[in-house]
């Protein structure tokens, strides 16, 4: 920034195994969102390596990278990021458009994803006709519709009241229990306490990492 160099992350070394449920915690500015952007291939580190499903991200072509982002990563944000003019169903189906899936099949897949988050009755509603918790359910359905390897959620409950936050966390835990790998950011200790593994960041460094799976290759660092 200007003539100041900000090290958003420094010396970070982390391995996340399939079907882990990992929470990143840490103060504002500690590097949590930067970490998520790098894991999600939205951003590239100026140094170091990122490997996803056995491939080094820096070696991927632009096409491969676009495909990985669309197929292997599902992102959920604090402020939902739904398209306001589209119905819940169309929002959820949106990522499938770029895969060349026919409209009928897209609708069927989106409907199944909405059923999974308990919102099929609201499929024709637009985001402004839904509560915050319902919007986040739609966003989760959209993130999951293409069965990504990894679900990333950056403060998914940050804009929700505590009861709704608990429901959303319960949903995320259900998705994890069904086999999904999940990484989420939270600064709520009650939420972190319900995650298997908790990684704490401070000034761009990992200062603790507890509860990683012990199995080889499953994030035992
Ligand atoms: N685009 C940017 N340009 C300059 N500094 C940035 C940028 N994005 C984030 N930072 C800085 O990087 C650090 C980590 O930010 P971030 O990953 O957003 O933290 P968190 O999500 O934990 O609040 C902070 O010091 C922040 O100010
Ligand atoms: Mg952040």
Q: Helical content, roughly?
A: 25-40%
CATH topology of the largest domain: Rossmann fold
Radius of gyration: 17 Å
Alpha-beta content class: alpha/beta
Mean pLDDT: 93
Instruction: List how many beta strands DSSP finds.
Output: 8
Question: Given the structure, what is the number of helices?
Answer: 7
Secondary-structure element string: EHEEHEHHHEHEHEE
Q: State the fourth-level CATH superfamily of the largest domain.
A: P-loop containing nucleotide triphosphate hydrolases
CATH class of the largest domain: Alpha Beta
Question: Cα distance, first to last residue?
Answer: 32 Å
The description of the largest β-sheet is: 6 strands, mixed
CATH architecture of the largest domain: 3-Layer(aba) Sandwich
* Whole-number tally of structural domains: 2
Report the principal-axis shape.
globular
Q: Strands across the major sheet, in which order?
A: 4-5-6-1-7-8
Uncertain segments: 216-221
Q: Kindly estimate the percentage of residues that lie in beta strands according to DSSP.
A: 15-25%
